[in-house]
Amino acid sequence: MNYQYPFDETWTKEEIIDAVHFFSLVEQAYEQHVKREELLSTYNRFKEFVPSKSEEKTLFNEFETASGYSSYHVVKKAKESSEFNVTMKGNPQ
After folding, report:
1. Per-residue pLDDT averaged across 58-63, rounded?
2. Is residue 21 in a domain?
3. Domain range holding 35?
4. How many domains is the chain partitioned into structurally?
5. DSSP string across 2-68
6. Residue 85 main-chain phi, psi, to 5 deg
7. Is the pTM here over 0.85, yes or no?
8. CATH of the domain at 76
């Protein structure tokens, strides 16, 4: 990993930690798998301090540009799935 996670300088230390945790779960979904409920719970926490869809989209785009991982597609798959784990291996973005 040679990139930084996106964050807003106005966030609290706890919010930055929670955002990093969310983006790390997105990475895990691509590199291995992640528990669906943990991902959705972490995403819901992320939405508490990033309620704006436009801000979310900006942060997701920054992360995807830096990492190649689509947060949007991971969250979408988690919401639509009933599987225990979410994995993006072999899934085109």
Report:
1. 96
2. yes
3. 13-80
4. 1
5. -S-----TTS-HHHHHHHHHHHHHHHHHHHS-EEHHHHHHHHHHHHHH---HHHHHHHHHHHHHHHS
6. -110, 155
7. yes
8. 1.10.220.80
